[in-house]
């Protein structure tokens, strides 16, 4: 790897690290934000969901924009927007300012993430070097999330506004060095047409679908409105498909979905993210509300999952070279399944030594699953559609996270009912844990369907 390529990788990894710590730090700082701004529970929840809505709703549009306008241009522009609105979040004095900042920051991430992943393919040739770069990139994302848990606790103890200002400093550094280090063979000219009608229909469908998912966290409230939101999303999805079929320059070339590897990667990413984020939500509630741990203690407990930052770049590429992507991803799902199964034994007398094997297994599962899923999503896809393929898999991750969180919330609330005893709350968390367990099992089945065909490590033609 040349010095320039290494520098480009550092910048791209810095951006995905930035996204990881941004999400994790906010989760830890929410109580301090509510105490300072006097936000209601509904508004506080909306601060989290606003980011997901912006991210998921604009992800595919961001991937296509990278293909049309140039990956480097879109990446740097989105990074600048991320910097500006993260700063606005730190200056927020009212709830609406925070909601606006989080929504636009999520939208900026939706453009920055697929462009960044596509730039990996533009700066590294296909094969072992690109696979290693993707592994480092993926492990950096998870390391950012793990370290963000601790950083969020430390910064929130000083002032929650630093949770927003710290990413501003890092983004400014990346913007200063990025233009000199990143290369893009398609930079300099705008090519192709922009399917604006398809973009509006798709973004609207994604936003409404994501909003509907967040409403499922409280299934008994406003059922009619929730159904109406999903119905409107379905109408826009249908409109999008019709628009794309008739368009001469579609936002999403529907033929890309004929790739079996791409479909498996997206379903696998959705189920893996759903199980991971659902489990983390349950573990956080269990540690803090039932065992009485502080947020910092909870953060340090979850840090064991960050072992993937060490394992992924060292071990995973070797396993992929020997066994192929599909088998490695399947092993990741099986480890996750073991993690959730072991955690079903949680009780009031549990020590960290008892739960540590689950945290370690989940970290190993993430190391084996995340990077190879990303490789399979773009493997065999034409280079001018790598941004689209990256957008698809990142959309699957975001929607999977939203589905997992809303699923465990809905099941847990249903099982708890009006009960308030610690025993009832523990039992509701155990039942809710079946959602990540089922998602991991389904993910393993999805990946197993690829064992008898072409392995994800080899190129798969797209009809």
From TrEMBL:
The chain crosses the membrane at residues 44-62, 74-93, 99-122, 134-156, 162-182, 194-213, 225-243, 263-287, 299-316, 328-348, 354-376, 396-417, 429-451. PROSITE patterns: MFS (PS50850). Keywords: Cell membrane, Membrane, Transmembrane, Transmembrane helix, Transport. Pfam families: MFS_1. Residues 8-455 form the Major facilitator superfamily (MFS) profile domain. It is found in: Cell membrane. Gene3D superfamilies: MFS general substrate transporter like domains (1.20.1250.20), Multidrug resistance protein D (1.20.1720.10). It is a multi-pass membrane protein. GO terms for molecular function: transmembrane transporter activity. One of its GO terms (cellular component) is plasma membrane. InterPro entries: MFS (IPR011701), MFS_dom (IPR020846), MFS_trans_sf (IPR036259). Its main location: membrane. It comes from the Bacteria. This is MFS family permease. It comes from Rhizobium pisi. The lineage of its organism: Bacteria, Pseudomonadati, Pseudomonadota, Alphaproteobacteria, Hyphomicrobiales.
């Amino acid at each position: 790897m040349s010095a320039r390529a290494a520098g480009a990788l550092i910048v791209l990894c810095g951006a995905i690290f930035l996204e990881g710590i941004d999400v994790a730090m906010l989760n830890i700082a929410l109580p301090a934000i509510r105490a300072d701004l006097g936000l209601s529970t509904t508004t506080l929840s909306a601060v989290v969901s606003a980011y997901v809505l912006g991210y998921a709703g604009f992800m595919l549009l961001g991937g296509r924009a990278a293909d049309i306008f140039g990956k480097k241009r879109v990446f740097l522009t989105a990074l600048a927007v991320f910097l500006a609105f993260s700063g606005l979040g730190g200056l927020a004095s009212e709830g609406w300012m925070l909601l606006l900042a989080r929504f636009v920051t999520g939208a900026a991430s939706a453009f920055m993430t697929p462009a960044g992943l596509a730039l990996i393919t533009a700066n590294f040739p296909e094969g072992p070097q690109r696979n290693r770069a993707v592994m480092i990139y993926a492990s950096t994302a998870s390391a950012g999330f793990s370290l963000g848990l601790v950083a969020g606790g430390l910064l929130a103890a000083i002032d929650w506004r630093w949770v927003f200002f710290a990413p501003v400093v890092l983004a400014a550094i990346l913007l200063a060095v990025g233009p000199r280090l990143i290369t893009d063979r398609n930079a300099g000219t705008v090519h192709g047409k922009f399917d604006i009608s398809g973009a509006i229909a798709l973004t609207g469908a994604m936003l409404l679908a994501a909003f509907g998912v967040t409403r499922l966290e409280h299934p008994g409230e406003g059922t009619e409105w929730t159904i109406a939101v999903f119905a409107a999303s379905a109408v826009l999805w249908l409109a999008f498909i019709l628009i794309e079929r008739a368009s001469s320059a579609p936002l999403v070339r529907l033929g890309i979905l004929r790739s079996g590897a791409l479909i498996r990667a997206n379903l696998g990413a959705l189920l893996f993210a759903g199980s991971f984020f659902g489990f983390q939500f349950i573990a956080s509630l269990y540690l803090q509300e039932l065992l009485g741990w502080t947020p910092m203690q909870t953060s340090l407990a979850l840090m064991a999952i960050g072992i993937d930052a060490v394992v992924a770049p060292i071990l995973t590429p070797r396993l992929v070279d020997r066994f192929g992507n599909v088998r490695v991803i399947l092993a990741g799902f099986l480890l996750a399944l073991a993690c959730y199964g072991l955690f079903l034994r949680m009780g009031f007398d549990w020590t960290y030594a008892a739960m540590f094997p689950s945290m370690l297994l989940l970290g190993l599962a993430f190391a084996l699953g995340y990077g190879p899923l990303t490789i399979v999503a773009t493997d065999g896809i034409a280079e001018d559609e790598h941004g689209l393929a990256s957008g698809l898999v990142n959309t699957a991750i975001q929607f999977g996270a939203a589905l997992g969180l809303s699923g465990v919330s809905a099941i847990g609330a249903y099982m708890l009912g009006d009960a308030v005893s610690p025993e009832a709350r523990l039992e509701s968390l155990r039942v809710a844990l079946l959602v990540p367990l089922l998602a991991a099992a389904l993910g393993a089945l999805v990946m197993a369907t690829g064992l008898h065909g072409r392995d994800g490590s080899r190129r798969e033609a797209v009809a």
